[in-house]
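In response to the reviewer comment on reproducibility (Comment 2.3), we provide here a single inverse folding case reported in full, input and output, so that an independent group could reproduce the run without further information from us. The structure tokens appear first.
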């Protein structure tokens, strides 16, 4: 079965991120900067810093498009009387775009301030950490709402929610590791343990976001773009699917 509707967009986002991160890791390891780098370590030295900027700048545009499509999908699946749900979706939509804008700004500033090796990583990790965590919260909220509105199976809805919860838990581990470093709560072996836990948590959290994005495939297949004189709109591909709920 081929890719239908707008399902190509999340697939492109996933392929772009995986390919980009693999290139960054390969360059970081080959250059000898670090043997076991985390994502934050791949953006400090040149040329990795430039590649990092391009990858996450394009990622922010992909993400903004995906969040707008998901917002429109939720609105299409709602009734005019569900005012509270519509308000929540607008809030989540704004939060999602804040993540995308923050990612783009972070990527651009990374290019211009890459020579501040000693000071910039702190600002980067705080900004990127907040963006990742806000994105995880966004995914969690949408996972709950999609139980009743998704065209995916109930099993896929369970998987989507589990991916969001696991991602948040892993990012909390990363935040704990960062706090031990900033506030110098431990040193020596203790710090090594927290650093390794944070690195593993960051990588697993990243793949958690990737897996969550993959679950949008089914819903995006049911959507298509329609062009009118007034502009472009997003609608369901098959009207009979509108009343179809996951089993």
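Designed residues, in position order:
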């Amino acid at each position: 079965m081929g890719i239908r509707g707008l399902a190509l967009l999340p697939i492109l986002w996933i392929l772009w991120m995986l390919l980009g991160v693999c290139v960054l890791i390969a360059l970081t390891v080959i250059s000898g900067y670090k043997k076991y780098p985390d994502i934050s370590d791949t953006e400090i030295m040149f040329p990795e810093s430039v590649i990092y900027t391009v990858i996450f700048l394009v990622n922010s545009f992909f993400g903004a498009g995906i969040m707008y499509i998901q917002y429109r999908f939720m609105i299409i699946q709602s009734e005019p009387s569900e005012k509270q749900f519509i308000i929540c979706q607008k809030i989540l939509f704004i939060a999602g775009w804040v993540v995308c804008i923050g990612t783009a700004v972070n990527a651009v500033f990374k290019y211009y301030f890459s020579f501040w090796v000693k000071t910039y990583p702190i600002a980067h990790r705080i900004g990127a950490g907040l963006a990742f965590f806000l994105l995880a919260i966004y995914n969690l909220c949408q996972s709950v709402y999609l139980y009743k509105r998704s065209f995916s199976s109930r099993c896929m809805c369970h998987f989507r929610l589990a991916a969001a919860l696991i991602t948040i838990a892993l990012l909390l581990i990363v935040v704990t590791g960062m706090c031990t470093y900033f506030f110098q709560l431990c040193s020596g072996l203790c710090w090594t343990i927290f650093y390794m836990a944070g690195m593993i948590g960051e990588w697993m959290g990243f793949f958690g976001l990737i897996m969550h994005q993959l679950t949008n495939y089914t819903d995006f297949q049911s959507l298509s773009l329609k062009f009118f004189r007034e502009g472009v709109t997003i609608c369901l591909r098959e009207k009979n699917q509108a009343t179809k709920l996951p089993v």
